[in-house]
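[User] At your convenience, examine this fold.
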Amino acid sequence: MLFKILGPLEVTGPEGDLAIGPPLRRMLLAALIVEGEHLVTQERLADVLWGDDPPSTATKNIQTHVFHLRALLGRERIERRHTGYVLKITPAERDTDVFEQQVRQGRLLVGLGCYKDARVALRRGMAQWRGPLLADLPSRAAWRGAANRLENQKLLVIESLMEAELGLGHYETVVEELSLHLETYPLHERFWTQRMIALSRLGHRSSALMAYEQARQTMNQELGVEPGPELRDLHQKILQS
């Protein structure tokens, strides 16, 4: 069974995607998946489902949703413990764990200069992403921290993947993919640096210099700052080449 939260919530069984049920049931399951095998208290589940205004029947409603989820996933999947519930799940069954395992392997391989194998691992990791964490559900404190952490990690993964592609000489791939990523993350300076490197190595000196001007204008307009030393130094090297 696969539990997918990098994007809309999905659970896939041997025969395909499972129909999880109404929104509150989906939110309860999401809270359990995010925590993995850690206890989620009934109080926290009530906060996820109803915020500061839980109904008087909150405990009974949670028990009803858990009953239906057990019927769907298997009774042994959700274990009752003292003040709450635990979802029994292995790292291979949760997309965030698969993502992080592939990322650890890929970034290690980049550091060793094993760019081909690094590229494979990092692209496997990125393939887990279908959108922001739990994109189909309202934002909740229960998973907001995880969402921010994973989003930041995703940026580092893209950097490492582009480093591998540069190491393999796939300069056109770097230019094309970073053009798309910069539409979403225009203030991420490392992407501008890697794009300029790829353009320069393709022999597109003027385009690399133009990319620097785009980066400088974007940072100045949005943040009121100039590019950092790495980007400025690269700009000078290209000017002098």
In short: The chain has a mean pLDDT of 96.
